[in-house]
Prior knowledge:
Number of strands: 9
Helix content: 40-55%
Amino acid sequence: MGIQDHGDGRLPSHMTFTEISYALKDGVATITFNRPEHMNAWTLVMQQELREAITKASADKAVRVIVLTGAGNAFSAGADLNRLRRIAAGEEPPPQPLPKSDVDFDQRYGYLLGVPKPLIAAINGPAAGVGLCLALYCDLRYMAQRAKLTTAYARLGFVAEYGVAWLLPRLVGPMNAADLLLSGRKIGAEEAQAMGLVRALPDKGFLEAVQARAAEMSASCSPRSMAVLKRQLWLGQRQTLAQACQQADDEMALAARCNDFCEGVAALIEKRQPVFGGL
Length: 279
C-alpha cells in the first residue's frame, strides 16, 4: 500500500504551487486549497497540484502527518462554477474518465487512500461536491462548528462522483448515505458528528487545534505503525475475521523485530517520550 511516485519519489523542495499552499511544521505537512476569493472551488490546476503535494509529503521523511484544509472561510465549495457553466452550455467537455483499472488506488482520487501517513481533513468551512469527496478520502475529518457539508449532486441534476457512493455508506451507513445523496441537503457539524462522519471542534482556533492533534500524533506515534495500521484498516473492509487475524499475526511478528517497537517499549518503561525512527 502506498502512493505511486516517480524516480526516487521526491519532488524538488523548491517547487511552487499556484492554487494550493504547502507548509511543514512539527512533522505535519499542511496542504491548503488556496483560492479563497472563489471559496476554494475546485479546478484542474488544484487537482494536479494536490497530487504533486501529496507525493511530496509522502516521500518526505520529515512529514509524519498530512492535513488538508482551505484558505479563508471555506474548505472547498466544489467544482468551479465557471467551468460548470461552460460544461452545461456545451462549451467545454465534461471531465474525461481515466483509463479503466481494477486497482483502487488508480482511481482519480483513490491514490489518497494509498498515502502511507495519516491524512486529516480540517473542514474549516463549506465543503460541497468534490470538496466533500476529498474529505471523505481522508482518514480523519475534523469540522469547525460553523461549517456546512452537502453532496449537492441531486440539486444540480448530477450524480455521485469519484467513489462518493462507495465511501459514504462505509462511513455513515446506508441510510445516512442515502439521505445525504438523495436530498442534497446541507448539514452542520453537530449532525455530521452524530453520523460519525466528523469530529466537531470550536470555530475559534480551529486549524491550530487540528494541527496540534496532528503534531501530537507525529511526536508520539511510530510512522511505521501508522502506515501498517492504515493498511490493516483498508484491507479489513474486504477481509474475513480469519484473514484479518492472520494478517495481524504476520504484522506483529514483523513489528516485534523493528526498532520502533523496541523504542516504544523502552519509552514506556522509562516514562519518557518515544523517539521513533520509522523502522
